[in-house]
Amino acid sequence: MIEVITPENEAEASVMKSILAENGIHAEIRSFHDTAYDGLFQAQYGWGVLRVAEADLDEAKRIIQEWKAASPVELPWEDDVADT
């Protein structure tokens, strides 16, 4: 297994894993959280990593890149809050 991306948090990792699974790519989530050190490694290395088989790496990167490009930069309801 090889690292494909470092997600920002557990929710993003889960979504990406699901999207890859929908496209026939098995992915593993590895969190850097360690309860003994109260998240020290996450502060140094990031939340964790999403890993896929080396044979699926290019396709996984393409799928994740398309998903990120399709994500809205601003959420529609943020404008409503600013106007009030």
Descriptive tags:
single chain, 84 residues, alpha+beta, Alpha-Beta Plaits, 3-stranded antiparallel beta sheet, 3 strands, globular
CATH architecture: 2-Layer Sandwich
Helical residue percent band? 40-55%
Strand order, main sheet: write it out: 1-3-2
Largest sheet: 3 strands, antiparallel
Shape: globular
> CATH topology, which one?
Alpha-Beta Plaits
The CATH superfamily title: Hypothetical protein rpa1041
Total tally of structural domains:
1
How would you characterize the overall build of this protein?
By secondary structure, the chain is an alpha+beta fold. The protein has four helices and three strands; from the N terminus they run E-H-E-H-E-H-H. The protein has helices at 10-22, 40-45, 57-70, 76-83, and strands spanning 2-5, 27-31, 48-52. The termini are far apart. The model has no long low-confidence stretch (mean pLDDT 79).
